[in-house]
Specification:
The complex is a heterodimer. Chain A is mainly beta. Chain A has a domain of 69 residues: Alpha-Beta Plaits, CATH 3.30.70. Chain A is built from 2 helices and 5 strands, in the order ββαββαβ. The longest helix of chain A is centred in the middle third of the chain and has 5 residues. Chain A is elongated, with a radius of gyration of 20 Å. The termini of chain A are far apart. In chain A, 30% of the residues are buried. In chain B, helix 1 packs across helix 7 and helix 3 packs parallel to helix 5. The radius of gyration of chain B is 18 Å and the shape is globular. The mean pLDDT of chain B is 94. In chain B, a hairpin with a 2-residue loop joins strand 9 and strand 10. Helices cover 37% and strands 17% of the residues of chain B. Chain B has one domain: Thiamin diphosphate (ThDP)-binding fold, Pyr/PP domains (Rossmann fold). Chain B is of the alpha/beta class. An 8-stranded mixed sheet of chain B has the order 4-2-5-6-8-7-9-10, sandwiched between helices. Classes of the chains: A mainly beta, B alpha/beta. Chains A and B meet through strand 1 and helix 2 of A and strand 1, helix 1, strand 3 and helix 9 of B.
Amino acid sequence: MQKQQETPTNMLENSKVLGPVATIFDSIHTGSWRLERPKVNFEACIKCGICEKNCPPNIITVHKDRVESVEIDWYYCKGCGICANECPKKCIAMVDERGEL
Amino acid sequence: MYKIYKDSKGLVAHGVSACAGCGLELIIRNVLDVLGEDTIIVIPPGCSALFSGFGKETALKIAGIQGNLENTAAYAAGIKAGLQIQGNEHTTVLAFAGDGATVDIGIQALSGVMERRDKIVYVCYDNEAYMNTGIQGSSSTPLGANTTTTPTGKNTSRKDLIKIAEAHDIPYAATASVANLVDLRKKVQKAKDTDGPALLHIHTPCPTGWGFDTAKSIEISKEAVNTGAWILYEYEAGVRKISYKPKELRPISNYLKLQGRFKHLKENEIVEVQDEIVSRFHKFMSEL
């Protein structure tokens, strides 16, 4: 039989793994790709959750009980703009990443 | 099982190197959200391989294997057979392949699975070309679309995958789109509950390959459904059922003008594409 490849996964403490397999669940810093950033007008927001459902990386959380209802994880947001395009109230605007805060 | 470095809300990591505005990312999240943790995924090389990870890192919390392009369905059938020998009837086996790995390279393995009635869920996300290797045309590329291998526009129509599945008379086959995620999730649930092979053909907008602004992904797939370029329907127990019927087909130029891959089309060519889509839609409606 063919000899198994020597990989760091063979030396794991919790289980013996043979062959090249993934044992780590990780994410990369996709927020660094962002050129434009969604900016929410919280007064016009009706908290419908459409942005949350249509966000490809799934990093938007809509809090129905907060004034700042839409929470975005900036570490992962790629700035694609789907949330701004799909918002029924058009209360999300895409602003320049390096522009005003 | 996995060592979790950065946790996520669902079963898929948040930071995956899929392009901004990618429709595939939305699909894999919704599919795995419905199927749940008790799933084994088979992924061929392609854009979806970004989710099976690189080296010792993965972006999925479930068990999975990255196979070859031509035998995704065969891998899945083998895993299912192994589970059945062990007496495990509850685990879902999901094959998650692109259009190239399904309608071109993997069609024989898929045909074998459909003929043998292996109980797997096969998802084909259709971005209408080989996007991962640099936008080469596949047999799912629509009439008139520009790719690197069809620079003047493809001059033949696309292959109809669900009709091939219907010819095998499988228990469940359906088309879906990111335009309607509620419908997509319902169909994934039905596929999971099917006793036998279930095939889902999902229209996936690709900002990089189709040449549009990343924000317009959902808008374009909605336009595809409303113009008749993509028909949402199910084939269940030998009967076809339309899931969403647009009241009136909108002119195809609404869909074409949003995309860079159709930019070269002249007026008479747009009429040609329109005729092809309308006649296919009416033929479909007459066969219901």
